[in-house]
Every structure is written in C-alpha cells, then in structure tokens.
Amino acid sequence: MKFLAEIDVMPKKEILDPQGKAVTGSMKNLGLAEILNVRIGKHITLEIEAENEAIASAKTEEACKNLLANLIMESYTFKVIPA
Amino acid sequence: MKFLAEIDVMPKKEILDPQGKAVTGSMKNLGLAEILNVRIGKHITLEIEAENEAIASAKTEEACKNLLANLIMESYTFKVIPA
Description:
Two copies of one chain form a homodimer.
Chain A: E1 2-11, H1 18-29, E2 35-49, H2 53-68, E3 74-82
Antiparallel strand pairs in A: 1-2, 1-3
C-alpha cells in the first residue's frame, strides 16, 4: 500500500530564527504591520510503500530522526494518510 | 483579536526539486528505500492582529503573494485559526 506523509520541521521555540525575524521586519515595509512573529521551517512531503499505516508512520519517524530534522535545533510533526 | 496562520509553500509539481531529489537518494543509503518522491518546501507560521478571521485570511493571502511565495515556481496553501 502507498501512503503519503506530510512533515513539518520547525526551529525550536528557544532557538532564534533569523530568517523569520528578517521576514517579520519586511512585513512592515509591505504595509502588513499586523503580521508578527514569523517563523520559517520546512514542509516535506513524501511517499512510502508499506504494509500498513503503523509501519508507514514508523518509517516516517525514522526518516525525520535520521535525516530530515536536526533534533538539537528543530522539532518535527507529521501525519501519514493512505495515498 | 489574534490569529495564527500556518502556511505551506511548495515547489510546483512541474518544477524539478533538486533538494528533494537529493534527499530521496539519501533515503536508500539510510535503509529507507520504501520512501519515494520527497519534495521539500517551506512551512511558515505567523501571528496576525485582525478584527476577524476573514481579514486575517486576506492579510495572510497578501503576505503569501507579495513576499512568502514565488508564484512562478511555488504554490501555497494556508489555514488561519484564532490564537
């Protein structure tokens, strides 16, 4: 069976996000001063061939831990759905 | 009122995603050959001060169009929720 995973990898709250800070500053110049506290991370989609959803989730978790996220600076969330 | 927006900015389907391709290749070396077709975009969170949800959505849309996404190569989706 094929599954689709959607993963968000974000800088941890305690970690300064300079890209987000820069974008927050730019919002003012665009006339969007109501927008605050921009934080920028990664959104990753992938396909998994697995027998069931539990295995697909485990594989996604393994990919996040070993490759997609830097656990010192980033945290991740994901959801897996049948494709 | 304060709202929270979650935005996904992804490379369009027709556009080659070299970062995603490289990560897909690395999955094999990690023993995760079941993972295919990795695509990598941005996940952005921000806060908006607005009178109601419709205004908050309009402001988010404006930010996406004018700053956060490159509409030639990327598409975006977002949801706005009360904070």
